[in-house]
Amino acid sequence: MSRRKLVLTAMLSTLALVAQPARAQEDPAVLKDLTSVIALQGQPCGQVVSAAKQGDNDYIASCQDGNRYRVFVRDGRVVVQKQ
Question: How is the chain split into domains, by residue range?
């Protein structure tokens, strides 16, 4: 029984060292939507090239021109804050 536990522990340790978290794929539709929202708010951006999801309806958007914005919903309204 102890040999079985030793083998199981070794396997789990190896899996923990080898396994890496999956990288989230950036959805082109989300990038396009964020670009539109930032433009509608009158902020300079050009095009959103990457976005990091912070929470439900909460993103940090990085623009083609180097600007970064936090786009989120507060009290039912979309808010765009320059970072």
Answer: 24-82
